[in-house]
Amino acid sequence: MGESWRSSGFSPNGPAAALDDLADARTREVEDGALTRVNWLPDTLEDAAAAGITDIDNVQAVTYYRTPRGGNEHSTNRRLSRSDSLLIGYDAFHLVDQLLTQPLQVILAGRKGITGSYEAGMKLWDMAPNPVDLMIVEGAGHYEMYDVPEYVDQAVDRLADFYEQHLAAV
Known about the structure:
The chain is mostly helical. It is built from nine helices and four strands, in the order ααβααβααβαβαα.
């Protein structure tokens, strides 16, 4: 998430400028008392189309999170924009080389997309001190790895083998 929020898609003028803009917005929130909430995703595919969103990953995110397939009745799909500054500073890879001492298995969707999950998985693989197993599920995209049996079954089978080998009682 951090790398995504620091990217040109969210921070077109760079993360420092984005933080300045967020600081100004927080000042306005304090002055007028109104919290600013923004969508994580378009609420519907029609909203996505109206916004010109056609990228397969964004469309699949909407069809997963904003439908009964993966949605939750309690999800408002809104976040306080003030928390975006925390997302800009988030680093999932901090201390990986020092703290990830157990055997590591990384399973990635083979279709690279805008989620950055393929690149993040490869970065984790490269940084980990004890990588053991890397699997790339060809043809799958990030959101298809959630619940499309053709892809999930491959990953589960590989996970089961890994767990059996590395978590078995000694």
